[in-house]
Amino acid sequence: MNATRNKNGSHAEIASTEFGGREDLTAVETPTPLRRPNANGDGEIPTGSPPDKGAAKQRLTRTLAAVAALAVALAAGVYYFWFVVPFQSTDDAFIEGYVIPIAPKVAGYVDKLLIKDNQEVSKGDVLLEIDPRDYETSVAQARADLAAARSQLDESQARVKVSQAKVVEAQAGVIAADAENQRAADDLQRYKSVDSSAVSRSAFDAAQSKARSAKANLEAARSQAQAAGSEVVLSQAGVETANAAVQQADARLHQAELNLSYTKVIAPEAGRVTRRAVEEGAYVQPGQALMAIVPHEYWVIANFKEIQLTHMRPGQPVTICVDAYPSHKFKGHVDSIQSGSGARFSLFPPENATGNYIKVVQRVPVKIVFDDDPNTQLALGPGMSVDPKVRVK
Questions:
Q1: C-beta of residue 105 within 8 angstroms of C-beta of residue 262
Q2: Residue 115 burial by CB count (10 A; 0-12/13-18/19+): exposed, middle or buried?
Q3: Which of these, 108, 105, 155, 144, lies nearest to 252 by C-alpha position?
């Protein structure tokens, strides 16, 4: 047995026994931990290994992780019920607007082109001018025709006055012939009332002949008066014809002046010129598409799934985000919901009553209008993609 001193100063005995060629080492004495006075010097505390703090740290870590997970879940729930559930959105939405095609009303060569591509124009601005010389000639001809028609009208009105004067003259002739006829008839009656021996046969025959002549003259005067009256009616009809000719000439003049004014193609609305397809010097025809004007009046057509329309109503507020300007948020509201899906009004609507049927969620167009006019400095236009978010709750 060998005695040795350990690091703590205690003695230990090690028995060394050889048995079967092996050496077994057995500790015969367990070291006793030293005790040292406490801070007050009135006792002793163990001076062995300090308690293990790893388990406490793990428990603290697990507790903090659980609290963090609970906080994240709570935040996610609040976000979902506050920012997701009350809203419906779709990326199948586009800006729509009016597109006004510009076409000439008269044919001719383009004399002046006063606009450029994508230029802003105001209502009433002249976009282009067609060579006006042919139409100026037409206006001059129409004015001459109108002057001739008015002259013919004046002549017809004067003819009516002449005819009316002839009627008065004819009526005076009738009165004179009637007086002469009455005198001749009275003379003949006196000749007949006296004895035949007192009047010669020649004088009686003369009186009788004069009476017949006076009667014939009266009939002729009456016929002339009737003819004069008919001539007045005919002259008045000529006045009506001349008046109609004046109106026709005036209408032709008005049309010629309109055609002359049509040589200047005017912008019907304020907006931006797009798709210009005309150049100076080109020959254009009536109805030919020359360009288009897009007014600054836009709205959004959003194609929502039919299952998103459960709580959607007109008037609900909408936040509109245009893909081209993600930093701009536009305010709007739901204007109307189309009565029917978009597929139903397509060029080839589906026929669900034939063959096998597979249910497909349909989309319904919803019109969304802007609350404020969009900034004209932004290049907004029909067909641009937007992401509308409708607050339905």
A1: yes
A2: buried
A3: 144
**Which of helix, strand or coil describes residue 45?**
strand
**Could you name the CATH architecture of 88-98+296-391?**
Beta Barrel (2.40)
Q: Record the pTM.
A: 0.64
Compute the distance between CA of residue 277 and CA of residue 182 in angstroms, rounded to an integer. Answer: 91
Q: How confident is the model at residue 78 (pLDDT cuts 50, 70, 90)?
A: confident
H or E stretch at 4: strand 2-5
Structurally, at CATH architecture level, domain 133-261 sits in Orthogonal Bundle (1.10)
Q: What does the alpha-carbon distance between residue 290 and residue 105 come to, in Å, rounded to a whole number?
A: 11
Q: Of the candidates 269, 270, 264, 268, which has an alpha carbon nearest to the alpha carbon of residue 284?
A: 264
Question: What is the C-alpha separation between 232 and 374, in angstroms, rounded?
Answer: 72
The tally of CA atoms less than 13 A away on the side-chain side of residue 58 is 4
Model confidence at 209, pLDDT cuts 50, 70, 90, reads confident
Q: How far is CA 314 from CA 37, 117, 309, in A?
A: 85, 38, 11
Fold classification of 100-130+264-291 (topology level) = OB fold (Dihydrolipoamide Acetyltransferase, E2P) (2.40.50)
What's the distance, Cα to Cα, between the start and end of the chain in Å?
92
Q: Write the single-letter amino acid at 282.
A: A
Long-range contacts of 350-356 (CB under 8 A, 24+ apart): none
Task: Look at residue 177 in the predicted model and tell me its pLDDT.
Answer: 72
Residues in the chain: 393
Which residues partner with 109 through β-bridges? Answer: 283
Domain limits of the chain? 1-30, 88-98+296-391, 100-130+264-291, 133-261
